[in-house]
Design brief:
The structure holds 2 protein chains of 2 kinds. Chain A is an alpha+beta fold. Chain A is 28% helix and 30% strand. A 6-stranded mixed β-sheet of chain A has the order 4-3-7-6-5-11, sandwiched between helices. In chain A, strands 1-2-9 form a 3-stranded antiparallel β-sheet, covered by helices on one side. In chain A, a hairpin with a 7-residue loop joins strand 3 and strand 4. The N and C termini of chain A lie far apart (62 Å). By secondary structure, chain B is an alpha/beta fold. At the A-B interface, helix 1 of A face helix 3 and helix 4 of B.
């Protein structure tokens, strides 16, 4: 996290978890953080937002995510979308968690605009507009719309946003969530062969050296 | 009566997104904990978990201001004690489950959400009675094709759940044997529409789907019971009056009658069909089987034995709701919470509104 020349807080979209719904599709994760890596984001989501009912005015809370021995501070927000309603004309809620990488005192707080979550959602507005009205049948695996892919592409294009507005302090002692870290990615077939090839090369070299030494 | 001895009935709402599950639960608790409800009915509901109760009340208060609640996006178990006026302990515990309707429409991608979904469905399956919500607004506008699609979708999901548990080598509790098809948003239906009329439309028009569902959930009586439900008076988009409802307070007593009706069927008497008044009269004639209830009831239903016996169907036939309210008050004065709760249930079953709102088909 950094502060730009206008003293605005800059937010890295790679560290954002966002859960919301469409007009027809039910609540789903549309964006997952690149860092930290967690298998069980739903467990985190449930614990972070326990007891919160999103309203028009955003509710913010700060906390610590404990991954094995690693601690990651986060700031979370929940709010109702100002415009969008679902197919039953109910308000649409947004649940966003940001993991800022803060340099400095572990216990120091962070100040963000109250509307920081709305600004994140707005920065990815094109992705939101593209996916909001799709039908659940279009989101089934192998079908036409890759929901998370659309948002991830938009995130990768935007990278960072500058947060505007009056700052409100957030402390990180509202909630502590402990989950297991994401398991290392399983080795793909291609990398397995690479490893074998590398090992074979080393063995051959050793054999060649032994043969040379024995001459 | 110690808390651990309180009869408990577990009810599960089944329905896709926006069918009315969350609104029902907020209204169910919100309306039945009000002082005016307690004065009229002689009992109230109390949430066992204070934070759950506060959450439901927060939704209910927004409904009073015209807003339908947000869609649910997490599984929740709500435990309510039915407390008869004047008694410090509940005579009956009613347990409801709520969950995202989207879990019926799409398998989540997140592994922990998939697990939460499987655990939620396992919990739903421990319920005594399943209540499948048929969206009354869609039934009014789309008619039978909507119901056919709903039943086909539900059957596919029921079978997928069974397969999912089998693939995970996880033991699967049997689906509830009792099912009520509840027509939600019934306030949007024509005023003269009764549960019996809707029953006849669906039994004839969706015969194949009902047979398929019956097999999928292993319940020979699936599609026999219909209940009109309205959580609020609304116009589809806004709540007009959160205090006007239909059938909310009937669900628990109807569920109990449902269990007894099945017992009557098992005893080969085939007595328990018709409107409520008629069902109770017919069941009263075969009530001797109640003494040997445990011989007929599957294990998970045996927790209801004492309450079913306390319903005392032979007593007070044709006497009306007021008679049972007086019995309720008399039992409460003596500190008999089970008998008081049973009398409260009988009072609800005898009400004129109940006769129009519920119907059980002979099959």
């Amino acid at each position: 996290m950094s502060v730009d020349e206008g003293q605005n807080v800059r937010l890295d979209l790679k560290n954002v978890l966002w859960r919301t719904r469409g007009q027809h599709w039910d609540y789903s994760f549309v964006l997952r953080p690149v860092f930290p890596r967690v298998d069980s984001w739903y467990d985190v989501h449930v614990k972070v937002f326990a007891g919160i009912s999103p309203d028009i005015v955003p509710v913010n809370r700060g906390g610590i995510l404990v991954l094995d021995s690693e601690k990651h501070r986060f700031v979370a927000t929940a709010f109702q979308d100002a415009r969008r309603r679902d197919a039953a004309d109910r308000p649409v809620a947004n649940y966003i968690i940001w993991f800022p990488s803060i340099v400095g005192n572990e216990t120091s707080g962070l100040s963000v605009p109250l509307s920081w979550g709305e600004q994140v959602a707005s920065s990815l507005g094109a992705a939101r507009a593209k996916t909001f009205n799709v039908l659940p049948s279009e989101l089934v695996d192998g079908a036409s719309v890759d929901l998370e892919g659309v948002f991830a592409s938009a995130r990768d294009a935007s990278k960072q946003i500058s947060l505007n507005g009056g700052l409100v302090p957030v402390t990180f002692d509202d909630v502590t969530v402990g989950v297991e870290k994401k398991k290392p990615l399983a080795t793909t077939s291609q990398s397995k062969w690479s490893m074998l090839a590398g090992t074979a090369t080393v063995v051959l070299l050793l054999l060649a050296l032994l043969w040379y030494a024995s001459r | 009566m110690a808390m651990t001895e309180v009869s408990e009935i577990r009810l599960a709402l089944f329905g896709p997104s926006a069918s009315g599950k969350t609104t029902f639960l907020a209204s169910y608790f919100g309306n039945q904990q009000r002082n005016s409800f307690e004065e009229a009915h002689g009992y109230r509901l109390e949430a066992e978990d204070v934070s759950d109760g506060n959450q439901l009340l927060a939704r209910y208060y927004r409904m009073e201001e015209g807003e339908f609640p947000l869609g649910t996006e997490q599984f929740a178990e709500y435990r309510f004690g039915l407390k008869v006026h004047g008694l410090p302990v509940p005579g009956l515990r009613i347990v409801w489950y709520d969950y995202p309707g989207g879990w019926w429409e799409r398998t989540p991608k997140d592994d922990s959400e998939k697990l939460a979904r499987r655990e939620a469905f396992a919990k739903l399956l421990t319920s005594h009675v399943g209540v499948l919500l048929i969206d009354g607004m869609r039934y009014r506008t789309e008619g039978l094709p909507y119901v056919l699609h709903l039943l086909d979708q539900f059957r596919a999901e029921a079978r997928r759940i069974s397969d999912d548990f089998a693939a995970a080598n996880t033991p699967l509790e049997a689906f509830p044997s009792q099912w009520i098809l509840a027509i939600s948003k019934a306030d949007l239906l024509p005023a003269d529409k009764t549960a019996e009329m809707i029953c006849r439309e669906i039994v004839v028009g969706a015969k194949d789907q009902l047979t398929g569902m019956s097999k999928a959930v292993n319940s020979p009586t699936f599609g026999h019971q219909y209940l009109l439900l309205s959580s609020v008076r609304g116009d589809g988009a806004r709540v007009i009056d959160a205090h006007q409802y239909v059938g909310l307070h009937l669900v628990a007593p109807v569920a109990l009658v449902s269990v007894l009706s099945e017992l009557a069927d098992k005893a080969a008497t085939g007595a328990g069909f018709g409107v409520l008044k008629v069902i109770i009269e017919r069941l009263a004639a075969v009530v001797d089987l109640i003494d040997t209830l445990d011989d007929f009831l599957p294990p998970k239903y045996q927790v209801l034995t004492k309450l079913l016996q306390a319903l005392d169907l032979k007593a007070g036939l044709g006497k009306g709701a007021e008679y049972f309210r007086e019995k309720q008050a008399a039992a409460a004065k003596k500190g008999k919470s089970l008998e008081a709760a049973a009398a409260a249930m009988r009072a609800e079953l005898e009400s004129p509104a109940a006769q129009q709102a519920y119907y059980r088909n002979q099959g």
